[in-house]
Specification:
The chain has 2 domains: about 20-260, 3-Layer(aba) Sandwich (Aspartate Aminotransferase, domain 2), CATH 3.40.640; about 265-380, Aspartate Aminotransferase, domain 1 (Alpha-Beta Complex). It is about 40% helix and about 15% strand. It has helices spanning about 20-25, 40-55, 65-80, 90-105, 120-130, 150-160, 180-185, 210-215, 230-235, 245-265, 265-285, 310-325, 350-365, 375-380, and strands at about 10, 60-65, 85-90, 105-110, 135-140, 140, 145-150, 165-170, 185-190, 200-205, 290, 300-305, 325, 330, 340. The N and C termini lie far apart (about 45 Å).
Length: about 375
């Protein structure tokens, strides 16, 4: 086919590379979304998602839609007009959540930190306790910067205030431990295209019984598509029709969850930490500086500052056209100043670090810099 896309190594903020097994799963014969052979696949997927979220929540399911649909589902179900919602904003995706709250008629109170910095948990908790607050939401791994938020102190403070606690874990799920039941997280959403290494198209979500009590107490109806009470009918024992589930995407997610189980969570999390450390060593060898300090950095996403005089478009264009590698550009105030490297799920491998460092060196040379590739590659292996 003349329009068949070329193979590119996806090392941006998502989508991430998929395994052959996930690709084969999508090509399996199609079944109806209520077929008796498909229902056990749904059951298996829900069990696997509970394991990754670290929860026993009955309402844990793969919503049809990208990660943003998970955000909308959380807002639509838990926020009513006039509700006060505290949102941690230290990147583009916290800001998007606050915007979604306002569109639903809620009052979004933003607790800000500079892009590339961690949220101050004391400030978040103080904002929650300043007035009666329905919901507090933070982004666990902020995709626009690569900062990983410590959820524990925020969760403890929010829980003590009687406020629901929600988490955007789009980038972090399957790359770091979550343990949401133990932390006291009431609702969370993610996407499939990052550390799960499934194509974009599903938004796994989970709601605690405490969150569902809030849904049942609403005085305003939830939009039909995202209504958790209706979703429970399809994803629960009743298996009542709500919408036509994307069967092939569920196959792919089931295959990815099988791979995760076979690898083991501890080994998977360690693999992400190891390749992140190797990448940072290689970047230092090239004279490149990560935006985020290592102690608050997400292992699956590293944001890198450009040296003076290096053009963003030319650098990333060189990687794509000469090395068939995709990395992400900066968002918001970081646009043109940084590039983002994702080592996620199936793509979090040492050989990809080595290929990336080699390509970065070449792109820097094309920009008139003089990187020491040999030193950088030696640094990658030094760990």
């Amino acid at each position: 086919m003349s329009d068949e896309p070329s193979e590119v190594l996806l090392l941006g903020p998502g989508p991430s590379p998929t395994s052959r097994e996930v690709q084969r799963a999508q090509a399996r014969p199609l079944l109806g979304h209520l077929d008796p052979e498909f229902v056990p696949v749904l059951d298996r997927v829900q069990r696997g998602l509970r394991l990754l979220f670290g929860t026993s929540n009955e309402l844990t399911l793969p919503l049809a839609g990208t990660g943003s649909s998970g955000m909308e589902a959380m807002v639509c179900n838990l926020v009513e007009p006039g509700d006060r919602v505290v949102v941690g904003v230290h990147g583009v995706f916290g800001r998007r959540f606050a915007d979604s709250v306002r569109r639903a008629g809620g009052e979004a109170v933003e607790v800000e930190a500079p892009f590339g910095s961690a949220l101050d948990p004391d400030l978040v908790v103080a904002a929650v306790r300043a007035q009666p607050t329905r919901l507090c939401v933070v982004v666990h791994a902020e995709t626009s910067t690569g900062v990983l938020t410590d959820l524990r102190p925020i969760a403890e403070g929010v829980r003590g205030a009687g406020t629901l606690f929600g988490v955007d874990c789009v980038t972090s799920i399957a790359g770091v431990p979550l343990d949401f039941d133990e932390l006291g997280v009431d609702a969370a959403f993610c996407g499939t295209q990052k550390c799960l290494s499934v194509p974009p198209g599903l938004a796994p979500v989970t709601f605690s019984e405490r969150a569902m009590e809030r849904v049942r107490a609403r005085t305003h109806p939830v939009p039909f598509y995202f209504d958790t009470k209706l979703l429970t009918g399809y994803f629960g024992a009743e298996r009542a029709y709500h919408y036509t589930a994307p069967v092939s995407m569920v196959y792919a997610l089931a295959a990815a969850l099988d791979e995760i189980e076979a690898e083991g969570l501890a080994a998977r999390f360690q693999r992400h930490r190891d390749v992140s450390a190797a990448l940072r060593r290689g970047l230092e060898g090239l004279g490149l500086e990560p935006l985020v300090p290592a102690d608050v950095a997400a292992p699956m996403l590293t944001t890198v500052r450009y040296p003076d005089g290096v053009d963003d478009s030319a650098f990333r264009g060189h990687l794509r056209h000469e090395h068939r590698i995709e990395v992400g550009g900066g968002l918001g105030p970081l646009a043109g100043k940084v590039f983002r490297v994702g080592l996620m799920g199936h793509g979090a491998r040492l050989e990809n670090v080595l290929r990336a460092i080699t390509a970065f060196s070449d792109a820097l040379s094309a920009a008139g810099r003089s990187p020491d590739l040999a030193a950088a590659l030696a640094a990658v292996h030094a760990g």
